[in-house]
Amino acid sequence: MGYDISFHPIDLRVAQERIAPFLAGHGGDDDLDDLIADAVRQAKVRFRANAWGLGVRKAYTGADFDTFLYIWGRPFFVTADDPATVAETVVRYCDSSLDAVDDLARSQIALIDPALVKHVEPEVSGTLPSDENLAAGFRWKLDLLREASTTIRAGRSTIRNADGDDISAAGALTGNAQFCLVEFLAALLPGWIERGKVWPSELAEQASTEGPLPMSDNAPLLGALTTEFPTLDWEVNWTIRSNYEIGGYAAPDQIAPMRKWLSRNAEALMSVGDRWDDRPYVAKAMIKIDEALALAELTGSAFVEAAEIYIPMQGTMN
Q1: 4: closest CA among 285, 289, 312?
Q2: Which of 83, 271, 275, 296 is the least crowded, having the fewest Cβ atoms under 10 Å away?
Q3: Read out DSSP for 274-303?
Q4: pTM over 0.85
Q5: Three-state DSSP class for 8?
Q6: Is residue 99 helix, strand or coil?
Q7: Does residue 257 contact residue 200 with C-beta atoms inside 8 Å?
Q8: Residues 22, 10: Cα–Cα separation, whole Å
Q9: Cα–Cα–Cα angle for 305, 183, 233, nearest 5°?
Q10: What is the pLDDT of residues 281-307, one digit of tens each?
Q11: How many Å apart are CA 102 and CA 45, to the nearest integer?
């Protein structure tokens, strides 16, 4: 089965201080309302920014417009050349009001060709749900896992899922906490989209490299959940083993070392693509990995690799 993979800066403070306690059943049911509201705002910003990218694709025929980087790669719509500027631009989108998106997108078109700006209009495909429905979409999984935690604390074993079926509360919590956490965090600080077996831990496993990849298993994402529920069998991975999984993790203090490691081992890692006769494909994936790491470095974030957080064919974009 194919992999829709992504590379994510992770705001560890939000993960450990806000989301993990919520999932554990602490505080009130409305404790994440401010984050939900921000996710809704960013969804609208993202939709508008993506429309500009699609508009450029329609109006511009230059070979230098890389759709798999500018539209189905980086978050929002960013055309800058260097990772630091890419990261700074993503932060500007994350902080942007909906009214300011058009000017920000036009500035990215101007980087391609200033004369192109007047020829591009946003190409809007479909419509976004209402704010209320967007909010419900962001929070229903978090609420379900929160219910699982309170059910376990109450000594009961099952909860009812969205389809109305009774499922194991412990299985729902331990099997989905990390994925749901990263999925929600990606609505607040987005990741980069790629496809295929080109995530960092997989490339490192397949290549002969100088020194180990500075990544570890992803247990830190769970925060205090593992200590609050010590008898549960928590799923922890150091790489992506199957679809809909979170893979390896790099702590905030390992982001700069990881970027240096990737640069030092670039030739060995890109040679993995020789097995498919497609070294440029791996090279482009490594650009995306480094840009995601640049954003993590800029924001003091951690980093994870993931599968199926975004599925472009189903309309879930970054």
Answers
A1: 312
A2: 275
A3: GGGT-HHHHHHHHHHHHHHHHHHHHHT-EE
A4: yes
A5: strand
A6: helix
A7: no
A8: 17
A9: 75
A10: 999 999 999 999 999 999 999 999 999
A11: 9
